[in-house]
Specification:
With 410 residues, the protein is an all-alpha fold. It has twelve helices and no strands. The chain crosses the membrane at residues 20-45, 65-82, 94-116, 122-143, 155-176, 182-202, 229-247, 253-270, 282-306, 312-331, 351-370, 376-399.
Amino acid sequence: MLQIQPPNKPPYSPHPILNLGFRIFFSGGAIFAILIIALWMFIFLGHTQINAAKINPFYWHAHEMLYGYAMAIIAGFLLTAVKTWTGMMMPYGYRLGAIFGCWLLARIAWAALGLGLTAFPVWLAVAIIFDLLFMGLTAWVIIKAVMAVKQYKQMGIISKLVLLTIGNGLCYWGIFTADQDYLRIGVYLGLYLVMGIVLTIGRRVVPFFIERGLSFDSNQEVSVKNSKALDVLSLGSFLIFMIADVFYPNPYLVSTSAFIVTLVNSLRLIGWYHPRLWQKPLLWSLFVAFLGVCISFFLFALQPWLAFNHSIAVHALALSGVGMMTVAMMARVSLGHTGRSIHSPPKTLNFMFALMALAFVFRVIMPLIATDAYLMWIMLAQSAWIGCFILFCFSYLAILAKPRGDGLFG
């Protein structure tokens, strides 16, 4: 007797924002980016009761920008991209909501620690449990999908996710034992691992986006230059730089390796350049972000010789490689994966990216030129950052919360 198999039940989530990881994590990450910098302003000016003996306020700030904001965007991107790479369905609906809920509870706990609310051990316990649960679950579902289809070329991304979870654990161990050195290692390891993911994914998608974006309205196909030799040199020199700056702080080794990273990625960027990219904000923003990364590593190379504050180079890397790059990626992915045209982006994009570029200028360039006005530059940089994400929320939250126009699930 012929048996007819019923069609597979279509995926269901209680709200479109839980259809795919990018929707909820980009939305939550953008709102968090506003609130956490606003809170940091109060902490930086000494208006909260943060327990500085347990948590260095600067490390509190760094932790939440990396393991809070950056990890939310990375999780949203990977929980979406891995579905495309592997063909395996990633968490959606209530399962996705549970992963996001872990991230959110950890962020609430870290805000409580920053405010200096009572019951410090309780808030720390909540942060530890839900932060590591969020990172562990994210890594697990990605590893499971990649291994199911034996896509071993993604092992570089997976290893960075695992190491990020370890780095976050070191931060908590440093707070628990009151050993600031563990906290320092966890923070800097987190920054450079996030940058490793940014450089890896950026190498894959930025030239692809430039080629596709410029070929769309051109009579001929646009191609950019790539080099496997530069890829290997970039990876090797960056790895040496990371180890030297985190574990073996020899200024000359840091300077040399940072200079090689600068040179290699500058050559890579030259190969990606096309004069028409300045007509498209979704392209010039990515190019400027990579240019900022090159400037950042050049500052790392110069720092031992010119003796300016190490945090200048650190913030340069964070604002370009994490700030500008994630905003540019979110702006494009949010359009493409909701079925909207990437060739007709919101008109606010130029202002949004300009504000992030201004944050870089105020936080990195101006303190090198006019050190007497340091506090003013900090406040202006933070204001520009907040302004950028307010514009992002204004332009994209409705897009991320609405169903696809073509009726597809995603």
